[in-house]
Amino acid sequence: MKLYNTISRQVEELIPLDGNKIKMYFCGPTVYDFAHIGNFRTFVMSDVLHRYLKFRNYEVTFVMNLTDVDDKTIRGAMREGISLKEYTDKYTKAFFEDIEAMRIERATYYPRATETIRDIVEFIKVLLDKGHAYKASDGVYFDISSFDRYGELSKLRKSNIKPGASGRVSLDEYSKDDIVDFALWKGWKEEDGDVYWETEIGKGRPGWHIECSVMSTKYLGDTLDIHGGGVDLIFPHHENEIAQSECKTGKKFVRYWFHVEHLMVNGRKMSKSEGNFFTLRDLVKKGYSPKAIRLVLVSTHYRKPLDFTEEKIKQAENTIKDLEIFIAKMKKVYQKNKNVKPTKLNVIKDAEERFISSMDDDLNIPESLGVMFSLISEFENADIASISSEEAGEILKFLENVKKILDFFDMNIDDVPQDILRMIEERENLRKNKEFSKSDEIRSKIVGMGYDIIDTKIGSLVVKFHKSGR
Hints:
Number of domains: 3
Helix content: 40-55%
Low-confidence stretches: none
CATH superfamily of the largest domain: HUPs
Number of helices: 14
CATH architecture of the largest domain: 3-Layer(aba) Sandwich
Number of strands: 18
Largest sheet: 7 strands, mixed
CATH class of the largest domain: Alpha Beta
């Protein structure tokens, strides 16, 4: 298996530090608002990577942090006049509801910054003792001049670095124009209200960057196999994580850096002022299914920008409907065509191998999906009576594996109540007896109950209706 490594700018063979064990960390949400669809591109890709590593028999420990104290969360709590915990708990709960809707499997651990304060303080004390950090009137700062490789991940120009008092920044987020010493610990200010901790390094709170270094190494050790996030985190966040972590431990912090490209909406950067800013909840309220949104998010390679449109969600809804009906047909074939001789088992095996080969190549999901849909097209266009039970069984196994990894469709839309099945059987008997008006009445009743009927040469299928957005 190969992954693109941001720090080397090359696709590299994935070689874990310890046998088949993978230690993986992704930057999670800052719980100050509902996660938007751009956040979910990264979260879904972290899920696909997590699932695929397990599918390839790696033993994965996956950590995703929750940033529940930073500039944004404090401003939000102050604005609403409630405690930081009450404010962030609301959005933490929403985050877990949203990832469940998006079929994102849980990470092994979800540490919170506010529950790691003691560890953060101890981490900073080591940096102070080693001369990589210094105290100032407004907190503790990391001295970027003390780390020779600062800027390696984001390919910064050394000439732009401005260490020392003339080049300090206490803000959590800043641009590449400001390559300066950054805050590890922020001294308390009046606008922080009651958000502070009394510690031996001063009264205050942690900076954003130190939180991830501490939470990742606490659960995964000094060296991680994979660290991921959106490309917007390369600088300053991940650059700063490398510096403070390697200065503290003296060891390589991350072996493979995994970054997900930007998401655009209708060809423009997502922005509330542009009217193209969507949370997952906004889209669900419009009637779109999370699994269709998930398909859109995985359909473009993670290292390419994704132009997200509602038209693409509608297309995804139709794609999923057709795929699930095909699955129902293959289940029918598996039951009915026991005496048909297989002729294309090699075609199915070849598709399975090419699907895995594409996924092994830096998670090339678009290519893998192309392999899957080509296989479906070949059997969809064949006479259903000519497909063998054995072939149908192998196709269903293949699609079960695809679902384990990508999970944007269901295998069970033909699971219907017994009373519906009895009505289907009655309708088929009426059709055999050419009592078409009565059979049409039963069909209308079934449709009225939320199901659709598909008639084939080997019998009728009944499937649940798909909901789609307006």
